[in-house]
């Protein structure tokens, strides 16, 4: 048991590459942590970590040992959870990385429902569109839109949707209503940077059109606001603008046309998920399933 405990301490140090940070996470003195790792190295007979006053680095043996240990430690933690009540009453801090727009539009109300159902779970949420290093940044799950990255991460599909076209009554009154995707070349379109070609589908027909965009930005909320203010045509999932449509602030155009399927995944480092992560992913799937197409 002592060996397994020391392995768990080594994994925590290796994740953050710092005795001080690992000691803070583990709520134990740095000197005690360093001594335990030294005992582990003596028992193995190999140096696992290079220590300097500025940084900690894994040795070649340390890299090999870390890859094996993190799986063993993860399985041991999971076994302890399954023996107790944590599957029915999971607890702890859940660290989640989310794209800003997806979190705002889709997840805020779902998170409120989740914490009411699982009061023992707290959240630390990192809002960023960039794929984070789950291990180095101690993230339990990252939610990302688009096809999963070519990596060792495990992808759990949550939902998928398609982009559609919308504009404000003010804009359509001034510029007219497009009758075909090819008409978009004569209109102001609101787009993400480096996305000046929109591909649209209708039954077996596909049209790719190069659009003109006075405003190019990577925030769906601001793009939506610009469209409401009459600054251009918006290409986004229906769910993003549903309230605006109900309020008459935006109108659908070219309704029979839609964009590519855009999937959403929850990414984890391993399939052996702690209870808090497992129930969170299952809850998201159940709530977002209605958006699957």
Q: Any idea how many domains? A: 3
Number of strands: 12
Strand content: 15-25%
The chain-level mean pLDDT equals 85
Low-confidence stretches: none
Report the major sheet: 8 strands, mixed
Order of helices and strands: HHHEEHEHEEEHEEEHEHEEH
SS field, number of helical segments? 9
Secondary-structure class: alpha/beta
- For the record, the CATH architecture of the largest domain stands as 3-Layer(aba) Sandwich
User: Helicity level, as a percent range?
Assistant: 40-55%
Oligomer: single chain
Query: Do you know the CATH topology of the largest domain?
Result: D-Maltodextrin-Binding Protein, domain 2
Cα-atom Rg, whole angstroms?
24 Å
List the helices and strands and how they pair.
Blueprint: H1 2-16, H2 19-26, H3 30-44, E1 49-51, E2 56-58, H4 60-83, E3 92-98, H5 100-117, E4 121-127, E5 141-145, E6 154-167, H6 169-175, E7 189-190, E8 197-202, E9 205-210, H7 220-228, E10 233-237, H8 238-246, E11 251-253, E12 261-268, H9 275-288
Parallel strand pairs: 3-4, 3-5, 7-10
Antiparallel strand pairs: 1-2, 5-12, 6-10, 6-11, 6-12, 8-9
Question: Notable features of this structure?
Answer:
293 residues, alpha/beta, D-Maltodextrin-Binding Protein, domain 2, 3 domains, 8-stranded mixed β-sheet, 12 strands, 41% helix
Detailed description of the structure:
- By secondary structure, the protein is an alpha/beta fold.
- It folds into three domains: 2-83, Winged helix-like DNA-binding domain superfamily/Winged helix DNA-binding domain (Arc Repressor Mutant, subunit A, Orthogonal Bundle), CATH 1.10.10; 92-151 and 273-291, Periplasmic binding protein-like II (D-Maltodextrin-Binding Protein, domain 2); 161-261, D-Maltodextrin-Binding Protein, domain 2.
- The protein has helices spanning 2-16, 19-26, 30-44, 60-83, 100-117, 169-175, 220-228, 238-246, 275-288, and strands at 49-51, 56-58, 92-98, 121-127, 141-145, 154-167, 189-190, 197-202, 205-210, 233-237, 251-253, 261-268.
- Strands 3, 4, 5, 6, 7, 10, 11 and 12 form an eight-stranded mixed beta sheet that branches.
- It is elongated and about 75 Å long.
């Amino acid at each position: 048991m002592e060996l397994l405990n020391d392995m768990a301490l080594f994994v925590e140090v290796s994740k953050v590459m710092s005795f001080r940070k690992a000691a803070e996470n583990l709520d134990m003195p740095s000197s005690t942590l360093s001594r335990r790792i030294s005992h582990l190295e003596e028992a193995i007979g190999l140096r696992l970590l290079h220590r300097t006053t500025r940084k900690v680095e894994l040795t070649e043996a340390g890299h090999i040992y870390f890859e094996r240990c993190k799986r063993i430690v993860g399985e041991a933690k999971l076994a302890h959870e399954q023996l107790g009540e944590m599957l029915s009453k999971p607890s702890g801090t859940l660290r989640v990385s989310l794209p800003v727009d997806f979190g705002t539009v889709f997840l805020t109300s779902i998170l409120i429902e989740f914490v009411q159902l699982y009061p023992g779970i707290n959240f630390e949420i990192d809002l960023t569109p960039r794929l984070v290093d789950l291990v180095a940044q101690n993230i339990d799950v990252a939610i990302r839109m688009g096809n999963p990255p070519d990596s060792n991460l495990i992808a759990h599909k949550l939902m998928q949707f398609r982009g559609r076209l919308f504009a404000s009554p003010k804009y359509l009154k001034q510029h007219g209503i497009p009758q075909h995707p090819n008409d978009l070349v004569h209109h102001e379109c609101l787009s993400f940077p480096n996305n000046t070609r929109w591909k649209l589908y209708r039954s077996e027909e596909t049209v790719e059109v190069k659009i003109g965009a006075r405003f190019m930005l990577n925030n769906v909320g601001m793009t939506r606001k610009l469209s409401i203010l009459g600054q251009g045509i918006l290409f986004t999932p229906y769910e993003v603008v549903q309230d605006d449509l109900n309020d008459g602030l935006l109108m659908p155009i070219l309704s029979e046309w839609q964009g590519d399927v855009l999937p959403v995944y929850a990414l984890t480092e391993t399939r052996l998920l702690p209870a808090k992560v497992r129930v969170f992913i299952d809850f998201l799937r159940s709530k977002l399933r209605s958006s699957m197409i």
